[in-house]
Design brief:
Keywords: Cell membrane, Cytoplasm, GTP-binding, Hydrolase, Membrane, Nucleotide-binding, Receptor. The chain is α/β, with parallel strands linked by helices and about 400 residues long. The protein contains 15 helices and nine strands. Helix 6 packs across helix 7 and helix 8 (about 160-175) packs across helix 15. The radius of gyration is 23 Å and the shape is elongated. The two termini are about 35 Å apart.
Protein backbone atom coordinates (compact mmCIF):
# COMPACT_ATOMS: atom_id res chain seq x y z
CA UNK A 1 0.00 0.00 0.00
CA UNK A 2 2.76 2.33 0.99
CA UNK A 3 4.64 1.66 -2.23
CA UNK A 4 1.54 2.10 -4.25
CA UNK A 5 0.78 5.40 -2.62
CA UNK A 6 4.34 6.56 -3.24
CA UNK A 7 4.22 5.40 -6.85
CA UNK A 8 1.20 7.38 -7.57
CA UNK A 9 1.95 10.32 -5.39
CA UNK A 10 5.31 10.80 -7.07
CA UNK A 11 4.04 12.76 -10.05
CA UNK A 12 1.96 14.91 -7.75
CA UNK A 13 4.85 15.53 -5.41
CA UNK A 14 7.27 16.28 -8.22
CA UNK A 15 4.79 18.66 -9.77
CA UNK A 16 4.30 20.44 -6.50
CA UNK A 17 7.88 20.21 -5.32
CA UNK A 18 8.11 23.76 -4.00
CA UNK A 19 4.89 23.49 -2.05
CA UNK A 20 5.97 20.22 -0.50
CA UNK A 21 9.29 21.74 0.54
CA UNK A 22 7.59 24.71 2.19
CA UNK A 23 5.20 22.47 4.05
CA UNK A 24 7.87 20.45 5.78
CA UNK A 25 10.33 21.19 8.55
CA UNK A 26 13.76 21.97 7.08
CA UNK A 27 15.50 18.92 8.44
CA UNK A 28 12.95 16.36 7.33
CA UNK A 29 14.42 14.17 4.61
CA UNK A 30 12.30 14.68 1.52
CA UNK A 31 14.39 12.98 -1.08
CA UNK A 32 13.77 9.62 0.48
CA UNK A 33 10.09 9.81 -0.20
CA UNK A 34 10.76 10.57 -3.83
CA UNK A 35 13.37 7.87 -4.21
CA UNK A 36 11.53 4.91 -5.83
CA UNK A 37 12.21 4.29 -9.53
CA UNK A 38 10.50 6.38 -12.17
CA UNK A 39 6.73 6.32 -11.74
CA UNK A 40 4.66 3.94 -13.79
CA UNK A 41 2.86 5.69 -16.61
CA UNK A 42 -0.43 6.77 -15.13
CA UNK A 43 -3.30 6.46 -17.54
CA UNK A 44 -5.99 7.48 -15.14
CA UNK A 45 -6.03 10.88 -13.47
CA UNK A 46 -5.09 10.31 -9.84
CA UNK A 47 -7.88 11.04 -7.39
CA UNK A 48 -7.21 14.03 -5.16
CA UNK A 49 -7.08 11.86 -2.12
CA UNK A 50 -6.70 8.12 -2.32
CA UNK A 51 -8.72 6.38 0.37
CA UNK A 52 -6.61 4.21 2.63
CA UNK A 53 -7.37 0.54 3.05
CA UNK A 54 -8.50 1.09 6.61
CA UNK A 55 -11.31 3.41 5.67
CA UNK A 56 -14.82 2.09 5.81
CA UNK A 57 -17.10 1.91 2.85
CA UNK A 58 -19.96 3.76 4.34
CA UNK A 59 -18.35 7.18 4.17
CA UNK A 60 -18.11 7.09 0.38
CA UNK A 61 -20.96 8.58 -1.61
CA UNK A 62 -22.67 6.26 -4.00
CA UNK A 63 -21.06 6.68 -7.43
CA UNK A 64 -23.39 7.38 -10.30
CA UNK A 65 -23.71 4.23 -12.29
CA UNK A 66 -23.45 5.72 -15.74
CA UNK A 67 -24.17 3.57 -18.80
CA UNK A 68 -21.46 0.92 -19.04
CA UNK A 69 -18.36 2.39 -20.58
CA UNK A 70 -16.41 0.15 -22.95
CA UNK A 71 -13.57 -1.16 -20.79
CA UNK A 72 -10.24 -0.47 -22.36
CA UNK A 73 -7.58 -3.03 -23.10
CA UNK A 74 -4.11 -1.89 -22.17
CA UNK A 75 -1.57 -2.96 -24.74
CA UNK A 76 1.38 -5.11 -23.78
CA UNK A 77 4.31 -2.83 -22.99
CA UNK A 78 7.68 -2.99 -24.71
CA UNK A 79 9.65 -3.24 -21.50
CA UNK A 80 11.94 -5.91 -20.22
CA UNK A 81 9.80 -8.42 -18.40
CA UNK A 82 10.50 -9.96 -15.04
CA UNK A 83 10.92 -13.69 -14.79
CA UNK A 84 8.81 -14.93 -11.90
CA UNK A 85 10.13 -17.74 -9.71
CA UNK A 86 8.52 -21.15 -10.27
CA UNK A 87 5.86 -22.04 -7.69
CA UNK A 88 6.94 -25.60 -6.97
CA UNK A 89 8.49 -26.01 -3.54
CA UNK A 90 7.85 -22.40 -2.59
CA UNK A 91 6.31 -23.25 0.75
CA UNK A 92 9.44 -25.12 1.74
CA UNK A 93 11.56 -22.19 0.60
CA UNK A 94 9.47 -19.68 2.50
CA UNK A 95 9.25 -21.94 5.50
CA UNK A 96 11.64 -19.94 7.67
CA UNK A 97 9.30 -16.98 7.44
CA UNK A 98 6.40 -19.03 8.61
CA UNK A 99 8.36 -20.83 11.31
CA UNK A 100 9.65 -17.59 12.76
CA UNK A 101 6.18 -16.26 13.30
CA UNK A 102 4.66 -19.48 14.54
CA UNK A 103 6.54 -20.22 17.71
CA UNK A 104 3.26 -20.90 19.51
CA UNK A 105 3.52 -24.44 18.21
CA UNK A 106 7.23 -24.89 17.88
CA UNK A 107 8.08 -23.70 21.36
CA UNK A 108 5.12 -23.43 23.71
CA UNK A 109 3.32 -26.56 22.72
CA UNK A 110 6.29 -28.87 22.26
CA UNK A 111 7.78 -27.84 25.59
CA UNK A 112 4.49 -28.52 27.37
CA UNK A 113 4.08 -31.91 25.73
CA UNK A 114 7.63 -32.96 26.50
CA UNK A 115 7.22 -32.63 30.25
CA UNK A 116 7.73 -35.76 32.34
CA UNK A 117 4.47 -35.51 34.10
CA UNK A 118 1.56 -34.01 32.22
CA UNK A 119 -1.19 -33.38 34.75
CA UNK A 120 -4.56 -31.72 34.19
CA UNK A 121 -3.05 -28.25 34.66
CA UNK A 122 -0.61 -28.89 31.87
CA UNK A 123 -3.37 -30.17 29.61
CA UNK A 124 -5.28 -26.97 30.34
CA UNK A 125 -2.23 -24.99 29.36
CA UNK A 126 -1.92 -27.01 26.18
CA UNK A 127 -5.52 -26.27 25.33
CA UNK A 128 -5.03 -22.56 26.02
CA UNK A 129 -1.99 -22.50 23.77
CA UNK A 130 -4.03 -24.07 21.01
CA UNK A 131 -6.76 -21.49 21.46
CA UNK A 132 -4.19 -18.70 21.24
CA UNK A 133 -3.08 -20.19 17.93
CA UNK A 134 -6.57 -19.47 16.52
CA UNK A 135 -7.33 -23.12 16.00
CA UNK A 136 -10.85 -22.55 17.27
CA UNK A 137 -12.51 -24.04 20.35
CA UNK A 138 -13.76 -27.36 18.97
CA UNK A 139 -10.61 -28.32 17.09
CA UNK A 140 -8.48 -27.36 20.12
CA UNK A 141 -10.48 -29.64 22.38
CA UNK A 142 -10.40 -32.43 19.83
CA UNK A 143 -6.65 -32.16 19.48
CA UNK A 144 -6.13 -32.19 23.24
CA UNK A 145 -8.25 -35.35 23.49
CA UNK A 146 -6.30 -37.04 20.72
CA UNK A 147 -2.98 -36.14 22.30
CA UNK A 148 -4.10 -37.26 25.76
CA UNK A 149 -5.10 -40.59 24.38
CA UNK A 150 -1.84 -41.09 22.57
CA UNK A 151 0.31 -40.00 25.48
CA UNK A 152 -1.49 -42.51 27.69
CA UNK A 153 -1.27 -45.35 25.19
CA UNK A 154 2.21 -44.73 23.86
CA UNK A 155 3.72 -43.45 27.07
CA UNK A 156 6.77 -41.99 25.34
CA UNK A 157 7.60 -38.42 26.14
CA UNK A 158 10.98 -37.77 24.50
CA UNK A 159 11.01 -34.61 22.39
CA UNK A 160 11.33 -36.43 19.08
CA UNK A 161 8.38 -38.75 19.55
CA UNK A 162 6.28 -35.93 20.95
CA UNK A 163 7.08 -33.85 17.90
CA UNK A 164 6.22 -36.73 15.60
CA UNK A 165 2.95 -37.28 17.41
CA UNK A 166 1.96 -33.62 17.27
CA UNK A 167 2.92 -33.50 13.61
CA UNK A 168 0.71 -36.45 12.77
CA UNK A 169 -2.28 -35.03 14.60
CA UNK A 170 -1.89 -31.55 13.12
CA UNK A 171 -1.50 -32.89 9.59
CA UNK A 172 -4.70 -34.87 10.09
CA UNK A 173 -6.50 -31.71 11.20
CA UNK A 174 -5.21 -29.65 8.28
CA UNK A 175 -6.48 -32.50 6.11
CA UNK A 176 -4.08 -33.53 3.36
CA UNK A 177 -6.94 -35.18 1.47
CA UNK A 178 -8.59 -31.89 0.49
CA UNK A 179 -8.31 -31.02 -3.17
CA UNK A 180 -6.22 -27.86 -3.31
CA UNK A 181 -5.63 -27.70 -7.04
CA UNK A 182 -6.57 -24.47 -8.77
CA UNK A 183 -8.74 -24.76 -11.85
CA UNK A 184 -6.49 -22.87 -14.17
CA UNK A 185 -6.66 -24.73 -17.45
CA UNK A 186 -8.77 -24.08 -20.52
CA UNK A 187 -12.01 -25.98 -20.78
CA UNK A 188 -14.30 -26.36 -23.78
CA UNK A 189 -12.12 -23.99 -25.78
CA UNK A 190 -12.45 -21.24 -23.21
CA UNK A 191 -10.09 -19.86 -20.60
CA UNK A 192 -10.41 -20.80 -16.94
CA UNK A 193 -11.93 -17.88 -15.06
CA UNK A 194 -10.83 -17.18 -11.49
CA UNK A 195 -12.55 -14.50 -9.45
CA UNK A 196 -10.90 -13.09 -6.33
CA UNK A 197 -13.07 -11.72 -3.51
CA UNK A 198 -12.66 -10.57 0.08
CA UNK A 199 -12.79 -7.71 2.56
CA UNK A 200 -10.97 -4.48 1.75
CA UNK A 201 -7.23 -4.50 2.45
CA UNK A 202 -6.79 -8.25 2.89
CA UNK A 203 -4.52 -8.54 -0.15
CA UNK A 204 -6.78 -9.33 -3.12
CA UNK A 205 -5.05 -7.23 -5.73
CA UNK A 206 -1.62 -8.31 -4.51
CA UNK A 207 -2.75 -11.93 -4.68
CA UNK A 208 -4.06 -11.54 -8.23
CA UNK A 209 -0.69 -10.01 -9.17
CA UNK A 210 1.29 -12.78 -7.50
CA UNK A 211 -0.95 -15.47 -8.94
CA UNK A 212 -0.53 -14.06 -12.44
CA UNK A 213 3.20 -14.47 -11.94
CA UNK A 214 2.82 -18.07 -10.78
CA UNK A 215 0.82 -18.81 -13.93
CA UNK A 216 3.26 -16.96 -16.19
CA UNK A 217 6.08 -18.99 -14.66
CA UNK A 218 4.14 -22.05 -15.82
CA UNK A 219 3.96 -20.62 -19.34
CA UNK A 220 0.27 -19.90 -19.21
CA UNK A 221 -1.37 -17.03 -21.03
CA UNK A 222 -3.11 -14.75 -18.55
CA UNK A 223 -5.53 -11.82 -18.80
CA UNK A 224 -6.38 -9.66 -15.79
CA UNK A 225 -9.71 -7.96 -15.18
CA UNK A 226 -9.78 -4.91 -12.89
CA UNK A 227 -13.33 -5.22 -11.62
CA UNK A 228 -12.53 -3.15 -8.54
CA UNK A 229 -13.82 0.05 -10.09
CA UNK A 230 -14.35 1.70 -6.76
CA UNK A 231 -11.28 3.84 -7.22
CA UNK A 232 -8.92 4.34 -10.14
CA UNK A 233 -5.85 3.47 -8.07
CA UNK A 234 -7.04 -0.13 -7.78
CA UNK A 235 -6.95 -0.65 -11.55
CA UNK A 236 -3.61 1.11 -11.70
CA UNK A 237 -2.18 -1.20 -9.05
CA UNK A 238 -3.33 -4.26 -10.97
CA UNK A 239 -2.07 -2.94 -14.31
CA UNK A 240 1.36 -2.45 -12.76
CA UNK A 241 1.46 -6.07 -11.58
CA UNK A 242 0.46 -7.23 -15.06
CA UNK A 243 2.95 -5.05 -16.89
CA UNK A 244 5.85 -6.46 -14.96
CA UNK A 245 5.27 -9.90 -16.44
CA UNK A 246 3.73 -8.90 -19.77
CA UNK A 247 0.14 -9.66 -18.88
CA UNK A 248 -2.75 -7.54 -20.18
CA UNK A 249 -5.18 -5.83 -17.87
CA UNK A 250 -8.73 -5.06 -18.91
CA UNK A 251 -10.01 -2.05 -17.02
CA UNK A 252 -12.33 0.86 -17.16
CA UNK A 253 -11.05 4.40 -17.23
CA UNK A 254 -14.05 5.54 -15.31
CA UNK A 255 -14.13 5.39 -11.55
CA UNK A 256 -17.36 3.82 -10.35
CA UNK A 257 -17.98 2.04 -13.67
CA UNK A 258 -19.96 -1.18 -13.60
CA UNK A 259 -17.57 -3.89 -12.37
CA UNK A 260 -19.66 -6.61 -14.00
CA UNK A 261 -19.09 -5.07 -17.40
CA UNK A 262 -15.33 -4.99 -16.78
CA UNK A 263 -15.41 -8.66 -15.80
CA UNK A 264 -17.44 -9.44 -18.92
CA UNK A 265 -14.92 -7.68 -21.16
CA UNK A 266 -11.98 -9.32 -19.42
CA UNK A 267 -13.36 -12.78 -20.10
CA UNK A 268 -14.29 -11.75 -23.65
CA UNK A 269 -10.69 -10.61 -24.18
CA UNK A 270 -9.40 -13.85 -22.69
CA UNK A 271 -11.53 -15.85 -25.10
CA UNK A 272 -10.47 -13.77 -28.11
CA UNK A 273 -6.81 -14.19 -27.19
CA UNK A 274 -7.16 -17.86 -26.41
CA UNK A 275 -5.74 -17.21 -22.96
CA UNK A 276 -5.46 -20.01 -20.44
CA UNK A 277 -6.68 -18.04 -17.45
CA UNK A 278 -8.60 -14.84 -16.76
CA UNK A 279 -8.10 -13.47 -13.23
CA UNK A 280 -10.77 -11.05 -12.04
CA UNK A 281 -9.96 -8.71 -9.14
CA UNK A 282 -12.95 -7.25 -7.28
CA UNK A 283 -13.72 -4.51 -4.77
CA UNK A 284 -13.91 -5.34 -1.08
CA UNK A 285 -16.01 -2.39 -0.10
CA UNK A 286 -19.14 -0.70 -1.17
CA UNK A 287 -21.78 1.47 0.36
CA UNK A 288 -23.24 -1.43 2.28
CA UNK A 289 -22.63 -5.10 2.83
CA UNK A 290 -25.82 -6.08 1.03
CA UNK A 291 -24.81 -3.92 -1.87
CA UNK A 292 -21.39 -5.50 -2.08
CA UNK A 293 -22.74 -9.01 -1.97
CA UNK A 294 -25.31 -8.24 -4.62
CA UNK A 295 -22.64 -6.73 -6.80
CA UNK A 296 -20.29 -9.69 -6.47
CA UNK A 297 -23.09 -12.03 -7.44
CA UNK A 298 -23.72 -9.88 -10.47
CA UNK A 299 -20.03 -9.75 -11.47
CA UNK A 300 -19.98 -13.54 -11.46
CA UNK A 301 -23.25 -13.94 -13.34
CA UNK A 302 -22.31 -11.43 -16.02
CA UNK A 303 -18.80 -12.89 -16.48
CA UNK A 304 -20.44 -16.28 -16.92
CA UNK A 305 -22.28 -15.02 -19.98
CA UNK A 306 -18.85 -15.49 -21.58
CA UNK A 307 -17.37 -18.49 -19.75
CA UNK A 308 -17.95 -20.34 -16.48
CA UNK A 309 -16.21 -18.96 -13.41
CA UNK A 310 -14.50 -22.15 -12.29
CA UNK A 311 -12.90 -20.78 -9.21
CA UNK A 312 -13.83 -18.13 -6.65
CA UNK A 313 -10.97 -17.46 -4.27
CA UNK A 314 -11.80 -15.83 -0.96
CA UNK A 315 -8.85 -13.90 0.42
CA UNK A 316 -8.50 -13.74 4.22
CA UNK A 317 -5.89 -11.79 6.18
CA UNK A 318 -4.38 -14.27 8.67
CA UNK A 319 -3.45 -11.50 11.10
CA UNK A 320 -7.11 -10.72 11.74
CA UNK A 321 -7.70 -14.21 13.16
CA UNK A 322 -11.18 -15.30 14.14
CA UNK A 323 -12.48 -11.78 13.52
CA UNK A 324 -11.43 -11.80 9.90
CA UNK A 325 -12.95 -15.21 9.52
CA UNK A 326 -16.32 -13.97 10.77
CA UNK A 327 -16.22 -11.08 8.28
CA UNK A 328 -15.21 -13.34 5.43
CA UNK A 329 -18.08 -15.72 6.04
CA UNK A 330 -20.50 -13.26 4.45
CA UNK A 331 -18.80 -13.78 1.10
CA UNK A 332 -19.59 -17.47 1.11
CA UNK A 333 -23.23 -16.51 1.11
CA UNK A 334 -22.90 -14.24 -1.91
CA UNK A 335 -20.77 -16.44 -4.15
CA UNK A 336 -19.83 -20.08 -4.21
CA UNK A 337 -16.31 -19.92 -2.78
CA UNK A 338 -14.06 -22.73 -4.02
CA UNK A 339 -10.80 -21.91 -2.29
CA UNK A 340 -9.19 -19.73 0.36
CA UNK A 341 -6.09 -17.60 0.02
CA UNK A 342 -4.65 -16.91 3.45
CA UNK A 343 -2.47 -13.80 3.25
CA UNK A 344 0.04 -12.22 5.64
CA UNK A 345 1.00 -15.52 7.21
CA UNK A 346 4.44 -13.95 7.61
CA UNK A 347 2.97 -11.60 10.19
CA UNK A 348 1.16 -13.92 12.56
CA UNK A 349 1.94 -16.54 15.16
CA UNK A 350 -1.51 -18.00 14.71
CA UNK A 351 -1.16 -20.83 12.25
CA UNK A 352 -4.18 -22.59 13.71
CA UNK A 353 -6.38 -20.28 11.66
CA UNK A 354 -5.92 -22.63 8.69
CA UNK A 355 -7.81 -25.37 10.51
CA UNK A 356 -10.45 -22.97 11.81
CA UNK A 357 -11.14 -21.57 8.34
CA UNK A 358 -11.41 -24.93 6.65
CA UNK A 359 -13.70 -26.24 9.37
CA UNK A 360 -15.97 -23.23 9.45
CA UNK A 361 -16.17 -22.53 5.75
CA UNK A 362 -15.78 -26.07 4.45
CA UNK A 363 -13.41 -24.82 1.78
CA UNK A 364 -9.71 -25.73 1.42
CA UNK A 365 -6.92 -23.21 1.82
CA UNK A 366 -5.27 -23.29 -1.60
CA UNK A 367 -2.65 -20.57 -1.43
CA UNK A 368 -0.84 -18.68 1.30
CA UNK A 369 0.76 -15.25 1.19
CA UNK A 370 4.06 -15.01 3.01
CA UNK A 371 5.20 -11.48 2.36
CA UNK A 372 4.86 -8.38 0.25
CA UNK A 373 7.37 -9.56 -2.33
CA UNK A 374 6.19 -10.36 -5.84
CA UNK A 375 6.79 -14.09 -5.50
CA UNK A 376 5.76 -14.48 -1.86
CA UNK A 377 2.72 -16.62 -2.62
CA UNK A 378 2.88 -20.37 -2.17
CA UNK A 379 0.56 -23.23 -3.03
CA UNK A 380 -0.63 -24.60 0.29
CA UNK A 381 0.59 -28.07 1.25
CA UNK A 382 -0.64 -29.60 4.50
CA UNK A 383 2.54 -31.44 5.44
CA UNK A 384 5.01 -28.70 4.55
CA UNK A 385 2.83 -26.25 6.45
CA UNK A 386 2.73 -28.34 9.61
CA UNK A 387 6.47 -28.97 9.38
CA UNK A 388 6.99 -25.22 9.37
CA UNK A 389 4.65 -24.77 12.33
CA UNK A 390 6.51 -27.17 14.56
CA UNK A 391 10.01 -26.55 13.24
CA UNK A 392 12.52 -26.05 16.02
N1 LIG B 1 3.18 -8.99 4.86
C1 LIG B 1 2.33 -9.24 3.89
N2 LIG B 1 1.63 -8.23 3.30
C2 LIG B 1 0.76 -8.54 2.32
C3 LIG B 1 0.55 -9.86 1.88
N3 LIG B 1 -0.38 -9.82 0.89
C4 LIG B 1 -0.73 -8.52 0.73
N4 LIG B 1 -0.06 -7.73 1.58
C5 LIG B 1 -0.16 -6.28 1.75
O1 LIG B 1 -1.46 -5.92 2.14
C6 LIG B 1 -1.77 -4.60 1.67
C7 LIG B 1 -3.14 -4.58 0.98
O2 LIG B 1 -3.06 -5.33 -0.21
P1 LIG B 1 -4.07 -5.17 -1.44
O3 LIG B 1 -3.73 -6.24 -2.42
O4 LIG B 1 -4.07 -3.77 -1.96
O5 LIG B 1 -5.47 -5.46 -0.73
P2 LIG B 1 -6.95 -5.46 -1.36
O6 LIG B 1 -7.61 -4.21 -0.87
O7 LIG B 1 -7.62 -6.68 -0.81
O8 LIG B 1 -6.82 -5.51 -2.84
C8 LIG B 1 -0.62 -4.21 0.75
O9 LIG B 1 0.24 -3.37 1.46
C9 LIG B 1 0.06 -5.54 0.46
O10 LIG B 1 1.43 -5.40 0.17
C10 LIG B 1 1.30 -10.92 2.52
O11 LIG B 1 1.17 -12.10 2.23
N5 LIG B 1 2.17 -10.55 3.51
MG1 LIG C 1 -7.54 -4.26 -4.29
Amino acid sequence: MELLLIAFLVPVLVGAGAVVALDRPVDEPQVKVLEPPAPEPVTVPAPVEAPTVEEEAVVEPEPELAPDPEPEVIAEPEVELEKPAPAAGRLARLRARLAKSNNVFSQGLLALLAQDDIDEDVWDEIEETLLISDLGADPALELVDRLKERVTVEGTRDPESVRAMLREELVAMVDPAMDRRLSATRKDDKPAVIMVVGVNGVGKTTTVGKLARVLVAEDREVVLGAADTFRAAAAEQLTTWGERVGVQTVRSEQEGADPASVAFSAVETGIAQEADVVLVDTAGRLHSKANLMEELGKVKRVAEKQAPVGEVLLVIDATTGQNGLAQAKVFTEAVNVTGIVLTKMDGTAKGGIVVAIQRQLGVPVKLIGLGEGADDLAPFEAEAFVDALIAS
